[in-house]
Amino acid sequence: MMEKKIKMGIVGAGTWGRTHAYIYREHSNAEPVAICDMNRERAQAIADEFGIKEVYTDYHEMAEKADIDAVAIVTPDFAHADIACCFADHKRHLLIEKPLATTREDAERIVEAVKRNGVRCMVDLHNRWNAPFNTCKQLIEAGKLGDPYTAYIRHSDIKWCATDLLPWAAKSSILWFLGSHSLDTLRWLFNDEVKRVYAVKREGILKAEGIDTPDIYLSTIEFEHGGIAHMENGWVTPNGNGNVNDFRFSIMGTEGMVNLNLSNHDLITFADQEKIMVPDILVSNFVFGKCKGLSYESIRDFIDRMVDGQEFRVTLEDSRKTCIAILAIIESAEKGIPVEVTY
Ligand SMILES: NC(=O)c1ccc[n+]([C@@H]2O[C@H](COP(=O)([O-])OP(=O)(O)OC[C@H]3O[C@@H](n4cnc5c(N)ncnc54)[C@H](O)[C@@H]3O)[C@@H](O)[C@H]2O)c1
Question: What is the pLDDT of residues 233-254, one digit of tens each?
Fold first, then answer.
């Protein structure tokens, strides 16, 4: 029997569009068929590298003409909704990079278009595939922690991400870029919805460098069934930090506790004449040329679920609720008051 191939399109040929291309080339049930970027050179470069035949600069044209089953939307955080709605209207399934959207209106528009067209949609909130977090989830599900009671998560980036990596950082924030992962992880581990948030932010370091976005948010999260968490997301960790991500987590239940340190985990370090570094072995690494790490696993899982028809491990409702709760955090930090989350 012929193996089923999911024909994939990619919109957005930047850093993360390339990550997607790797998996669609490697996965035996996928095939990268078309790529679109408003910058033709960028799209052409990935097309050449990964053997993608069709190149577009206008996603409307790609939605009209490309023979694809699904599309990966890998454009900047604020530029997901129009593209998602267009492809849903052309009956294409969607894998949208996190966050789902950065406004309530955009999130609702996507949800409405997905439902109206009967297509499937997953948002790439990939921390659920992060092995230490996934093990923590398994321990919670096995009852080893009792009831999750309180947690702390710090998920921050070195400043370079905002100043150099992302040309659109000022049109997003660390809350969208990493906070969406943090909050999805907390919702997943507590198996609960955010009820109320109280957040503070500080700004000035990035603004002094001409990037108009907050430096850091500290958020207190209250869940509907009583769990509480502190969430820290900053874009100003010093560039000399050995790891791009500063990623710590602990969760305490009524019976047990899990602690994670994914930043300086002592599994591997590399030193040259100037500094010590922590090579990435968790997010996007290769073993004998094969894609490993959580960032590939979530995309691989999208293809697997497209083939077997089972529900995505991150549902559209997961990503919508994460988006709405992040908006409440932004509002709380802006007004300096606790905000009840209304879904
Ligand atoms: N899952 C993860 O942890 C992870 C990691 C990195 C990035 N991302 C997400 O992926 C998305 C893209 O990030 P990136 O780092 O690749 O950004 P990038 O700036 O490197 O690439 C974005 C590309 O989209 C193109 N683009 C923008 N608007 C377009 C449009 N209307 N039509 C066609 N092309 C368009 C730009 O020209 C650019 O080449 C973001 O939402 C980001 O948060 C997710």
Answer: 999 999 999 899 999 999 999 9
